Fold each of these.
Amino acid sequence: MLIENEHLKQFTSGFSRSCLQINGLLESDAELIRLDNKVLAITTDNIVEEISSGLYADPYQIGWMSVVVNLSDLAAVGAEPLGINISLNMPSGTGSEYLAGVGAGIEDACKLHKTHVLGGDTNWGNELMVGGTGIGIIRDDKIVLRKGVLKGDLLFATQKMGLGNAYGVSRLIQKKEDFNFYPKARLDEGNIVRQFATSCIDTSDGFIPAISNLMEINGMGYDLEQDLNDIVGDEIRSSIASEGVPPWMLLAGPHGEFELLFTVPESNVKKFLQAAQSIDWQPVYLGRAGGDPTLSFRLNGNSLSCDPSWIANLFTACGGDVHHYFNELQKINQSWLQQIFQN
Amino acid sequence: MLIENEHLKQFTSGFSRSCLQINGLLESDAELIRLDNKVLAITTDNIVEEISSGLYADPYQIGWMSVVVNLSDLAAVGAEPLGINISLNMPSGTGSEYLAGVGAGIEDACKLHKTHVLGGDTNWGNELMVGGTGIGIIRDDKIVLRKGVLKGDLLFATQKMGLGNAYGVSRLIQKKEDFNFYPKARLDEGNIVRQFATSCIDTSDGFIPAISNLMEINGMGYDLEQDLNDIVGDEIRSSIASEGVPPWMLLAGPHGEFELLFTVPESNVKKFLQAAQSIDWQPVYLGRAGGDPTLSFRLNGNSLSCDPSWIANLFTACGGDVHHYFNELQKINQSWLQQIFQN
């Protein structure tokens, strides 16, 4: 059971839901509202902890990310962005140059994704928060939620993953400042995914937390046919090769990279891959859905399995302490190597 | 010139605008986006300073207000709410009972206004922020913005004002805890206003700041025919009669009461008043638009005029110190009485 989900369920347990809303609680990356023959997609995402922890320090990057976190949720439901409302909460000493940097990041991220700031709200508080609400539209009747996986569906990702956590390791553990992280939301890919997939989630919280979410919502496990270490992008692997970090750990951490993780029924795969090819995109095949809610995977060629929610909860269980968390991941790695050795 | 508007213009100066957006910056209480033959209304409003200053302390009231501030913006454009996304930023020690109180206030305010929480985002920070983004829809082609006042238009309010600042005085200056403030957004009234008015703004920042906003955006003044003290509700006046607070001051302060302030052309007045009567509502006539951007008004039967932006900026100019601010308002009152005496 994911701790964050439990927390949310508790807060929202008394809320009645709109009969226009398609998705239930936690069943979708964005809220989907029926509007005649269309669907509105609405998502709110604010950046707080990433700033206070030092993960994002550059004002331009903070502005950029505040847009991308929201657009990525729209991508995961395959919506076309109509725009974004920005929420800004600033400490009273915030300088106008800093603020201009945040604004430039917001505008550049909007431009890249062909969308616009619509409005927003600014407040004075005692810590910086930048975020917003993204509004999107779906113009046909094809809908994809996190919920809907069928046994035997093929699991894909838009691309190999691990970049977000590689950035996190670089910034918070290695204290490097030269790692550029300006991710793009997968809007074009999401629009295709929506037409063929039975489920979709973004990897903004990391790959293992994302698959754990899919597993919890659908009550079904996954058998990853790709080696866990191979799911990490080649360049990312080589960048951390000398640092004693097994690649799979970059799939575990809570700072993801805004890829999409989704399931396609066997019967749709051919058409899906054709559509992907039409935008020059090669989806990454990962494995299949089915069976008990367990994650079966290969590590260095050996078969293992785990409860991914345990890994997904680990950062919270470590009180958000990155060094403690990193040590706990190393322990998991050791236990897996031991299992492999004993087999 | 309103300080808050200048600040916003600076931050947003580099933002390109969507060609689907009907309103320009600051021209509307909610952002209006064309969607085929309909219009989406989107507004973001977060409560931060009202919590840190102690103005709102009860979790239920904080939850209630986080909904109403957003629905009131939808009311000012006459939109029908589709729902609200909640933004919650909590200090790490926030107890589950406190949180349940916030949630109950949110749900009860939604119920009263026949709307729903759609989703949202929760974060852990070092101070409490509760807010959200309200989404509404306008199903015909009648639009009202803050901008659009014509010379000679009649100025109305949904009701006499001053309640919000009376609450502020009670809470922050008199340190009383028995003043209940659970305002309602004027959604039904706003729907009528939209069909007949040339401009509309809510009084969430107080009556004088609201009229100052209308004046700045439209470049036109107002002649109030009602005595300034009479614009304050009778019950509110009697509640502060013994406290040495001239009633008009309750129109000046930055904590409003979610009435609507709007202009109706002479040619629409009859139909407008008929429509208002159909929902048992008696709009309050205040005066007329026209001439230089000055506010002409009567005080105790005498004619005066002022630049309302000076009063609207005063709270910010006093660094948000309520006692300093209150003293400055008393000075304005003295100078007005002196002018009356000299005439």
Note: Residues 54 and 172 of chain B are 7 Å apart (CA to CA).
Amino acid sequence: MSLNWLLVFIPLALGLDWYGASPIAIFCVSALAIVPLAGLMGQATEQLSIYVGATIGGLMSASLGNAPELIISGFALKEGLGDIVKASITGSILGNLLFSLGLSMIFGGWGRQRQQFNKTVAGVNGGLLFVAAVGLLIPALFHFATGKEREVSTEIAIVLFFAYIASLVFTLKTHRQLVETEPGQYGPGKEQVEEEEGRWSKGKAIAVLGGVTVLIAIMSEMLVGAIEPASASLGFTPIFAGVIFLALVGNAAEAMNAVRFARNDQMDLSFGIAVGASTQVALFVAPVLVFLGYAVGQPMNLHFTYFEIIAITLTVAVVSRLTSDGECNWMEGVMLVCVYLMFAIGFFFLPA
Amino acid sequence: MSLNWLLVFIPLALGLDWYGASPIAIFCVSALAIVPLAGLMGQATEQLSIYVGATIGGLMSASLGNAPELIISGFALKEGLGDIVKASITGSILGNLLFSLGLSMIFGGWGRQRQQFNKTVAGVNGGLLFVAAVGLLIPALFHFATGKEREVSTEIAIVLFFAYIASLVFTLKTHRQLVETEPGQYGPGKEQVEEEEGRWSKGKAIAVLGGVTVLIAIMSEMLVGAIEPASASLGFTPIFAGVIFLALVGNAAEAMNAVRFARNDQMDLSFGIAVGASTQVALFVAPVLVFLGYAVGQPMNLHFTYFEIIAITLTVAVVSRLTSDGECNWMEGVMLVCVYLMFAIGFFFLPA
Amino acid sequence: MSLNWLLVFIPLALGLDWYGASPIAIFCVSALAIVPLAGLMGQATEQLSIYVGATIGGLMSASLGNAPELIISGFALKEGLGDIVKASITGSILGNLLFSLGLSMIFGGWGRQRQQFNKTVAGVNGGLLFVAAVGLLIPALFHFATGKEREVSTEIAIVLFFAYIASLVFTLKTHRQLVETEPGQYGPGKEQVEEEEGRWSKGKAIAVLGGVTVLIAIMSEMLVGAIEPASASLGFTPIFAGVIFLALVGNAAEAMNAVRFARNDQMDLSFGIAVGASTQVALFVAPVLVFLGYAVGQPMNLHFTYFEIIAITLTVAVVSRLTSDGECNWMEGVMLVCVYLMFAIGFFFLPA
């Protein structure tokens, strides 16, 4: 199940770039190259977190776990592609909550009557998703209600980031035992690493982390540069590319883990990856990108399109409803994937 | 409790039509004539399903159970009354989820502290309703976000229909025992028939099915022809007539069964009828009408009005919330009926 | 914890008014003076209710508990400040559901793993909130869908008021024992009074009630007269003043009680105050103000702004989700307060 063979796409991407290949080829190959790098970065983070104690380790895991998305988005932001960055935030939320979680429920639930997961954790995550939905909705709502351009994005980003900090205190301090009913629940990479590869030395973990970061940065710059011409050649809007494809690149490795844990009937792990990734994108990645936007001189707002905010809000409502009972089955997975398909159809036909 | 005495309205309707009576009279009488015919069609389907084995029987019951709506809507579609057809879809969803289910909770819950029903079944149905709400919302959202007319209705209809097929596999195959905790749960007509009338021969069932189909078709053509002039005479908009009256015609017999089962404290049956009818209208009738629209040369889209989609979305959210705990009481029924009344007020005053 | 020392602001307010002080000073001082008066009115109502039997007492408590809001809003309505009245209804709903309940969960949950409350009561209250949200949404939706000015507010107000009456029958008659699992659950003032001050004589209760009503009326007139000039001086819009400040004035005493009960791990009481206040504002105060509007010759509609209705709808959805499991913790409180802050940011920047 390892995706490491995809690393072969790194030299291929560099070669294609050197020979000035078509943007479509560069987009696809650099995207495929990032998938195993994102997976390796997660592994290295988990390995390193073993050496720094549980709390700092949890913090590292929660923040560095989103490094691939942040690196890709940072380059896109620098190129003035703020709308595509926002589309990839939307896509990351929809993709994780509907596609990854849906596939997990289908593959996990097939052949089983039901699968169970921790209701309280699901409740807290469901609540955080609602907070995120409100935060991503207010700037657009503000624009709609007033027709004015005064952005409230920075203030909203601060509140979202505060909610994220509070959730870390909850998860890593006051309710630690709640989310640790199964070992490694919020560090699924950890268990995977231990099973498959044993413990790394501290030096190896740091070296891998550094090397992978540089490689992701190089691939991301190529990927971002190819988005617009590649989308144009393929007849996609850049928004569709952002919502569907860009969002998958940073999350594919995690999605595969989520499905694998579900298949093993470890729905708590699966749920932790898919829903955790969504809350982190909304409460950590999105605010950090707003702050980063000021740093790179390309201020980003949180003014999403109507189609995006309604998609996010309804997705949160559906997932929240289906997970409130602490049980799932394959049919609920089919529902999530159907909702994903319908939104994807909408985004596909939306004009630029 | 039999509604068969209403069959007397069939000859009356034919007579009124012959003598060229007022559209109001023809509308009312043909509508009343369809009510017992829809009930009889349900009975005949249940009877026939006994002879064909459980799975085929379940399929027949799930698809033929919607035949009256499909026949009425087919004639309306042929007459170019697509908006009224969509209004009757909206009305069927609101009427079943708010009015039928609300009345069932009131009559069933009065004098009892609480009534209980299967939470898992309620969860799956609640999820399907969300899928339906998203599907019926996207075309309008698409139109709103873009101002363009590109319809995504056919693609959405295919996804909704796929969700319907999957739900049949879930109900009739993989989770059969879940929905059969009480005998005949999803075939309430069956139990009713057995209690009241005994088993029919296969020939009788087929003959009744054929005869009733012809009569429904004749009454439907008269009903559809009278909608617009009758609405105009009564000061209603055709949309109000579709949402409130037309929706009741095909569902009145089922609604009475739902209330009766609730009174007997068989809320699972009651719930199965009211919520099942809504999911079938959204996931089976609506897509089939889109496909049928191409066949009759009057393509129908799923572009509902804003008022309709917000009514559907909020209704799904309210019902989903009230049924998530597997318990109900009369006050929850009052809430559903109040929400129905408020939407009915809105539709009444909406200009054409 | 008594707020009675704030009574000193009554003579201060009168003095400032006499000397023609700045509107800001008059607004603040008269607002502070109303806080203890509202608390005293609640106490007097509870004391009096002891003498009239449980059912009449419950009715008195449910209706007179909202007297301060009604008095303030009545004066504002007479001055033609209908938009500010509606803003204070919005603010009262948001403030109670997000700020009071959120603070209660934070202060009550800190140092505890979880707090529990009655799920069935939470379910009924959650349902009533949805009914309220639909009712407050339809007039704006009607306006949006049609662009026409035909108001449906009076009809909607009648349905909301009917739902309120039904909920009183539920609470005081058919399901009395449900909400009385802890003594005084829906009369938190009662317990507080008994603990702190003993029983009052019937005469004292009536005298206090009368005196307090007169004082609230005087202070309210001063407060209402100062809203617009004070808001202008402070750089707030009147809507922001209504949503945030005016809403707090009538509810501050109750909010403090809610937090105090939460701290004592009596979340059912806390929940009853915060959520009960919201449902009463939406189902009793709002309709009564519509009826009162006709009486004072300043008809008020229920046409809220988009920002208000989306804020109310999402708030109801969030609270409904977080309370559906009958458990809470401090993180859920942080979420509610974060959502409150984000809406407050939105209202702050909204132009008049």
Note: Residues 181-193 of chain A have pLDDT under 50 and may be disordered.
